[in-house]
Amino acid sequence: MIRLLKIEWTKIKTYKVFWILSGLYFVFLALGIIMAEFMINNMIDNMNKHLPIPVPHVNIYFFPEVWQNITFFASIRYVLLFPAILVIILITNEFTHKTIRQNVVNGLSKTEFLLSKLYMILLISIIITVFVTISALIIGISHTSDITAGMVTDKLVFIPGFFITILTIMLYAFFFGFIFRNTGLSIALFTLYTLIIEPVFYYFLKSPLVFKNDISTYLPVNAVLRVTEYPAIPVLKKMMGLNLQDTVTMGAALIPLLYATLMVAIVFRTLIKKDL
User: Fold this and answer.
1) Would you kindly state where each structural domain of the chain is located, as residue ranges?
2) How far apart are CA 164 and CA 170, in angstroms?
């Protein structure tokens, strides 16, 4: 594993695009975490202009709800595109620059090559999760009075839930990159599917014109987003009738992992049997 990660590090350590996109992602992620409460309360202020009874401001940064709220905002569809696109670029560059052939010629097997990419995705997922965890911990401590150990550990399960979210969305990107092999095409199709095709299909399946079903909840990207589906904001339940999430369930986490496993298996089978 260490040997394969060293090979990946050799490829990216001087790759400016990787570091620029990574830096932008962490900057936007940090700004999103810091600005989330302000944006929500700004929306509430705008709503209050048209409501007879004003809705009070919310606080999303106190323990234990901070774990759920921060991971929710870090798991928004548009935010997840950043690391996914990064993975697509790292994968498709191997075909664009034909470095995959060079690696195999130099003695790296196809299986080892794929494992090196999976190890890199796993490492990036861990780094992002640690960043979100530290951010939530610092914000929670600064916004919570009379902190107890129980308050800090309650709802901590949303952190491994977020890890599954970020890992699986990047494995989806891994699939797109290897199947289509072209950077522009892979990014375009992944973005199109994530932001347009699946949401349209989701709302079509939920339409009263379609027979009653729960199929929409099992769509690949939606399954990822359902791991941390709602923030812990009681006003959402009061005004919109939402059943707020209390924890990360095994079922919700298992579905995107099964999708990701299937996609990785398809990539392995395709690359092993296909010429480079």
Assistant:
1) 2-273
2) 10
Average pLDDT over residues 55-80: 86
State how far the Cα of 23 lies from the Cα of 21, in Å rounded to an integer.
5
Q: What span, in angstroms and rounded, lies between the C-alpha atoms of 186 and 174?
A: 10
**Nearest of 272, 270, 108, 183 to residue 99 by alpha carbon:** 108
DSSP H helical ranges for the chain:
2-12, 16-48, 65-74, 77-96, 99-105, 110-143, 149-153, 158-180, 183-192, 198-205, 220-225, 234-240, 250-273
Neighbours of 69 (CB within 10 A): 28
Cα(82)–Cα(114) distance, rounded to whole angstroms?
21
pLDDT at res. 52: 73
pTM recorded for the entire structure: 0.90
In whole angstroms, what is the distance from residue 266 CA to residue 269 CA? 5
Question: Of the candidates 117, 141, 152, 147, which has an alpha carbon nearest to the alpha carbon of residue 7?
Answer: 117
What is the spatial distance between Cα 187 and Cα 177, in angstroms, rounded to a whole number? 8
Average pLDDT of the chain to the nearest whole number: 86
pLDDT-above-70 percentage for the chain: 90
Question: Which positions ≥6 away from 110 have C-beta within 8 Å?
Answer: 104, 271, 272, 276
